[in-house]
Specification:
Blueprint: H1 4-24, H2 30-50
Helix pairs in contact: 1-2
């Protein structure tokens, strides 16, 4: 159950990467697809960084 958010985030990254490929083929505007890919990668890095943080005593 702990790996479910990571799996969903990876699926979001794959979907946004496919959308970005469509943007490079000029089927979807690239200025819409690039921020989606950036935000999905940012969410992944924030999630991976926040899991093992020491919160204090």
């Amino acid at each position: 159950m702990k790996k479910l958010p990571v799996l969903l985030i990876v699926m979001l990254i794959l979907l946004s990467f496919i959308l970005n490929i469509f943007g490079l083929m000029k089927l979807i505007p690239i200025f819409i697809t690039s921020p989606i890919l950036f935000i999905s990668l940012l969410i992944l890095f924030l999630y991976l960084n926040d899991r093992r943080r020491f919160k204090g005593f």
